[in-house]
Each structure stands twice: as C-alpha cells, then as structure tokens.
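Reviewer comment 2.1 asked that we show a complete input and output for one of the modelled complexes. We chose the protoporphyrin IX containing FE case, as it is the one discussed in the main text.
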Amino acid sequence: MIRLVGILVGLGFAFVALLAFGVGAYNAATDPAAETAEHAFHLESEMPEGGYSFTGPIPSWDVAQLQRGYQVYKEVCSACHSLNQLAFRDLSELGYSEDEVKAEAASWTTIPGIDPTTGEAVLRPGLPTDGFPAPYANDVAARAANNNAVPPDLSLMTKARHNGTAYVYSLLTGYQQPSAELATRFPDSMPGPGLNHNPYFANLNLAMAPPLSDNQVTYADGTPATVEQMATDVAAFLTWTAEPSLVDRVRLGWLVMGFLLFLTVLAWLAKKQVWADAKRKD
Amino acid sequence: MSFPWAKRYEPTNPLMKFLDEKLPLPRLVYDAVGAGYPVPRNLSYMWNFGVLAGFCLVLQIVTGVVLAMHYASNSGLAFDSVEHIMRDVNWGWLMRYAHANGASAFFVVIYLHIFRGFYYSSYKPPREMIWLIGVVIFLLMMATAFMGYVLPWGQMSFWGAKVITGLFGAIPLIGEPIQQWLLGGFAPDNAALNRFFSLHFLLPFVIAGCVILHIWALHIPGSSNPTGVEVKTESDTLPFHPYYTAKDGFGLAVFLLLYCAFLFFMPNALGHPDNYIPANPMSTPALIVPEWYFYPFYAILRAFTFDFILPAKLWGVLAMFSAILVWFFLPWLDRSPVRSGNYRPLFRKFFWFGLMPCMAALFYLGGTHAEEPYIMFSQIATAYYFLHFLVILPIISSIERPEPLPFSITEAVLGSDGNAVLSDNAKPVA
Ligand code: HEM
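Response of the prediction step:
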C-alpha cells in the first residue's frame, strides 16, 4: 500500500517537474533570452601588479602601506564614506604610538558631542575612544549630495564583495569611457546623467565619480601618489579594516595545522597498534 | 540489550564501586561506548560520521553559548554586535568563525552519514526507529541553521528569512496568516529576529535529546556493517573500546585538519559576501540563496515553474518538503531482504549512476541564478530524485536478484567460515 501510494506520488512530482521542463525548453528554443550588457561587458576584478603582503601562505601587514591607505581614506574617501566599525584607537595597530593616535584623533574635528557647560550639541575634536565620524547626518542627506545614491560604509567593503580587495582596487582604477560597441548594442546601459561608466561595477554605471586623480594626496614617505598607488594602498587599508585579525588568524592557523598533523599521525599509529592484535584476540 | 558475550563492568577501585552502587554512570558509559559494547569487526570509515556528528553538535553548543554572551538579538544592534564579537571580544573572531564553519562541517558530516544509510540501507528492519529519529534530527538541524543564519542580520539573513517564510504564503487561504504569525509581523523585523534567536538557542538542546534517543535505539540491534549480515557469534564483533575509540580518534583528527583548514585559511569561502552588508528591506540582492547545505532542496523548490492545476509556487513548496519526508518512508519503500548495496547489483548501479549524480547536480544548481539552462537541469534532477526514491527503489527491490551473501561477518573479513580456527596472518579489513 505504501509502495503503491509512493509510486503515484513519485510519478506525480516527476510528471509536473518534467512538464515544467518541457515548457521551459520550448520557451528557451522559441524565444532565447537576449544577452545582457552586464554579461557582455562586466569585467572580473584583478589584484594590483606586485600583489600584497597579506595574501599568500605567510601573510603580514605592510604598515607603511596601511598608513598611506589610511591617509587616502582620510583625505579623499571620508568626504563621502563612513567607517562605522572602527575607532581611532584601532589605529594603534597601524604602527602609530599612543601620542600619535591621540593627535590623529584630535585632527578629526567633527565628532558629535555635548558642550559641558550648556548641554548643547556641538562638534568637538576626537578622542582615541571615539568611532570614526560619518560624513552625512543620515541617508537622506547622503542621497541628496550624491545623485540619489548612498555611499556605503567602507569598514567591511572588502568582505562584502566577491574578491573584495581586488574589487576595490579594480573599481578605483577601472573608470573609462563606454565603448562604441556598448553604445550601439546596449544604448540603455550607457551611463545616465550623473553616472559613471566602470566595467567592474555590477551594472556598469555607478554614482561615484572617479574619486582619485594623480597627486591628490602628498604621501609623507615620498611615495609618488599615482592613481594606481593610491588605489593599491586604500584597498590594503580597507582589507585591514574589514578583517584586522586576518594576519593573526592565518599565522595561528599554521600552528594549529602543525599540531593537528602531529595528532593525526599519533592517532593513526595508535589505531594501527590497537588493531594489530584484532586477528589474534577473537 | 547487547550480545550475551559482552564484557561486564566490574569495578575494582573502591570509588568506582561506590559510584556504581549509587549512580551507575560509569557502567552506562562502559556499556555504551566502552569495552562492554560489542561492535561488528568490519565497520568501514563510513561508520565514523555518527561520532563526528556528535562532536559537531558539542562544538556548536560550546561556541554558540559563548557567542550568545556577546550577541544582541535586536534588529538595530545585531549586525554591529556580530562585528563587535569579531573585533573587540577576545578570540571572538575565532568563536564566530568556528561556529559559522562548524555549521557547514556539521552538514558535511550529516550528509555523508545519511548517504551511508542510503547505500547500506541502514533504514531497514530492525533499525527503522534509528532512521526515523535521524530524519527528525536532520529537520531540526535545518530549522536551527536557518534561524542561525538570520541572526547576524545581514542582507542574506533578511532576504533569506523573507523568502523562506514566504514559502508558507504559498499555502492557499491559511498561508498568509501563518506567515505573519511565524514572523510576528508582515516582514522579518525585530519580533522575528528575537524569536529566531530564542529558538536557535533552544533547538540544539532538543537535537541533543533526539541524539540520545537515536543512540538508545541504535544500541538495541547494534550497528549494521558493510556486508549487511547481522552479527551471529562473538568472532563477528570487537569491543567498542579500544578498537573503535581508536578508529574514531583517527577519524576525528582527520576531520579537525579539514575543518581547521577552512576555519583559519578561508573562513568566508562557504558564506555569502552579501551577508557583510547590513540588512536593508529597501534593497533586494541580485541573487538570494540560502547556505550551501540547503541547495538541493532550494533547487527542487525553484524547479517548479509551471502552473499545473496548482500554482507553480505551491508545487515547489510541496515538492521541497516531500523531498525530505520521503526519507521517512524508505524502510517501507525498499523491501529487498538484502541490506548492503555491495550485494545488490541493480540497486548499486542506480545509486552510483542515478542518485549520486542527481544529488551532486542539485547541490550545484541550488546556488545558481534562476535562469536557463540551470532551471532545466534542476527540473530533470528533481524528476529523477522523486522517481528514484518512490518508483525505482520499490521496483528494484522486487525484481532484483541479489548476489550471494557471505555466511557471516567473520567469513567476510577473514575469508574462512565462521567456525574455522582463525589463522594468525588473517587480516581484518580496516
Ligand atoms: C545544531 C547546532 C547549531 C547549528 C547548526 C548552528 C548554526 C548557526 C549558523 C549557520 C549561524 C550563522 C553564522 C554566521 O553567519 O555567522 C549561527 C549563528 C549563531 N548561533 Fe548557532 N548553530 C547551532 C547551535 C547554536 C547554539 C547551541 C547556540 C547558543 C546557545 C548558538 C548561538 C548562535 C549565535 C549567538 C549566532 C549569531 C552569531 C553569529 O552570527 O556569528 N548556536 N548558528
């Protein structure tokens, strides 16, 4: 009885699934889906030439690079993008001393605070314990200033996109004029007013104008500030903000793997020894 | 329970004697996973996954309890509290990655455990109850993992919760009220997040209770084995300890190596980047997919695209739930008297060239964009899935001619008949 009912139910589901298959196949044959502009023009992100110190089997942070990247964030990106998950004290991990962190925090002068005498809302210089301030009071203000797009928080950006470090680098260096082919084949995918063409962006056009131009910042260590260089550095910095534990994690991982390998060998030998006498013991 | 030749617990130490009189806990352990539990001598490594699943459950409970100490189940705070765990809590990143990857490891182990059951027909008498409890555990795990994935309150958390609870909306008439009742609102929000956290904390302990029943039921007939021939004499068995404790110990070490490789070197490989974007009801992600371990069932859900009498969505929901519910009926669908696939030529062909490729396809297709040709493939795989369990298995079991079975486990392992003296160089198959 169960088998009879089962066979009927099974045939029923299989029939409906195959019916849907037939209809889908018919539609696909008579009316094939047109290629989309994203499919034809979207590019996969690539790492900058030379790579990074934090990729590869034994990663490390290049502190000078992170400091440069922080400078780019501070002097360029922070005009539009927040960094919500970070506090100034976190900068101590970038090789700044306690006093330097204090001075750095104080150089940000727009921290919302309260006047100690009147109780009124004021803007004050930062303390190491403060979080990074957001550039806009709310999303409405952010939209109003950015062609109806909200600049996303950057703290987790490199984890929130596929292949994130390469993505940030490629996006910042990837702005270009839309090709003539795009204009003829997909006129709807040409950048509209206030949008900028970038083949690394999911739908090819984004509201962020190219934020970097050569020599936009002056690096303290004298590194030439090309767009490439700044993009490389800020992508490294954002990798650190997204995952400050990255280097510690991988390095600890090797210790753990070494220990586990040793344990596995011991466990194997123990197993072999225990089972060796299985033939006699019966 | 157990076999008459099982060794008996005889404490010599006065403290153990005292304990044994007042509360015989050591005796329980001795008889359950010690020298007092005889086990078939020919179990392969496919029999390691039960112990590994138990390990995963403990791992999830320990890391989960620590996470719960720092996590805030409020829709305004949840996302940031998870980042607080990652950044500010000492070893918080380790706990969180251990928990998130632990859930994946748990499902890898459980799927292998279940597929072992399919191949060796572990669901057949006298082990039906063990199998039924196992399917209940699997359903509870799915519920737990689904609600856990909602907790970080990222984009996939939110939209996943919306899509999955939306499935109930496909039920005619009562669907929408049920959906609203489950969520405590019209869309996932604070009320949903709070109850999901409460249930996500509770269900693992319910699972632990079911695991106790599962093992209790197991210890009545004892484990099956790769031949599927039941234990007959003492020479068919070995005491659990030290033989299988040693073998499970080695299995655990190998498992930990693989698990830690993910945990330390690619902790986000199995997750979805969108879940690092805070939940935003106003912006729908380009692709909404659940965690990988739900892919087969998600593929089945999306395979139904055609309204045939019932709306397509309702077919999808019915099929998705039925895909797991059919497992409950396996003991009565497959009536072959032979258990092990090793002695069932036809069954074996359909297992390796039918069911396994079908599952592999469904695992892949559940994660793809809902577009052609993926949908067409998932429609074929879905049809085969139901035909396999509900039509092919019952038919095979009545027409197939099984290959000859060994007389006993001893014979299968040692190549002599069960009564012969065992030669010194006869080697057991590990
Ligand atoms: C059957 C066992 C369990 C499974 C399969 C499971 C699964 C999951 C999953 C998939 C997540 C989302 C992970 C992420 O994306 O970060 C999660 C999160 C969480 N789980 Fe569990 N879990 C289990 C047991 C527990 C237990 C016993 C507790 C606490 C008592 C717990 C507490 C939490 C907490 C607080 C979170 C949110 C923090 C986070 O997202 O990292 N879990 N769980």
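The mean pLDDT of chain A is 94. We note this here for comparison with the apo prediction described in Section 3.2.
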